Amino acid sequence: MEIKDGYYKWNKNEKGNLSPHFGMKEFACQCKNEDCLEQSLSLSLINKLELLRTIVNKPIRVNSGYRCHKHQLALAAGGKETAVGISTHELGHAADISCPELIIQDLTPFVDKFFDSYGVAWNFIHCDLRPKRANGSKRIWYYSSAPGKF
């Protein structure tokens, strides 16, 4: 693993930690493409997730971290992804997370402390590094599977 230009960069087959609570394997692209080896994740994303994990004081599961372009296209073709254009997962700026010990409604206020952009579903929260909108409001959305606005 190396740190370059504000990103962790590693080979998908590498093992190791990115922070005290998160490992490389958790964030690696989940595709089966043989040519998907180079992984890249923003230091800022890991730092925010590490702070979140520390404050929550419970394990945080990474459901999806970095995604290569082919994997992103496959998800879109299968109707499992709604991102238009380049996904923040492809940029290494996003992770879908959950906490096995908390329901999503209880995890969301913690996410709100560290992220200006997130989407809530019934079983995960998409956290990404996009900034607030021009009017200063956060980018918050609810997937159709979300437990409702709370």
Describe this structure in words.
- By secondary structure, this protein is an alpha+beta fold.
- Helix content is 25%, strand content 23%.
- It has four helices and eight strands; from the N terminus they run ββαβαβαβαβββ.
- The protein has helices at residues 24-27, 43-56, 69-77, 104-114, and strands at 2-4, 7-11, 38-42, 61-64, 94-98, 117-120, 125-128, 139-142.
- The strands form two sheets. A five-stranded mixed beta sheet has the order 4-5-7-6-8, with helices on one face.
- A hairpin with a 2-residue loop joins β1 (2-4) and β2 (7-11).
- It is globular.
- The model has no long low-confidence stretch (mean pLDDT 92).
Q: How would the blueprint of this fold be written?
A:
Layout: E1 2-4, E2 7-11, H1 24-27, E3 38-42, H2 43-56, E4 61-64, H3 69-77, E5 94-98, H4 104-114, E6 117-120, E7 125-128, E8 139-142
Parallel strand pairs: 6-8
Antiparallel strand pairs: 1-2, 2-3, 4-5, 5-7, 6-7
Beta-strand segment tally:
8
> Over all CA atoms, what is the radius of gyration?
15 Å
Q: Which spans of ≥5 residues are poorly predicted at pLDDT below 50?
A: none
SSE succession: EEHEHEHEHEEE
Adjacency order of strands in the biggest sheet: 4-5-7-6-8
Compute the number of helices. Answer: 4
Name the structural class: alpha+beta
Per the principal axes of the C-alpha atoms, what is the gross shape?
globular
Strand percent estimate:
15-25%
- DSSP helix fraction: 25-40%
User: How far from one another are the termini?
Assistant: 40 Å
Largest sheet, in brief, is: 5 strands, mixed
Mean pLDDT value: 92
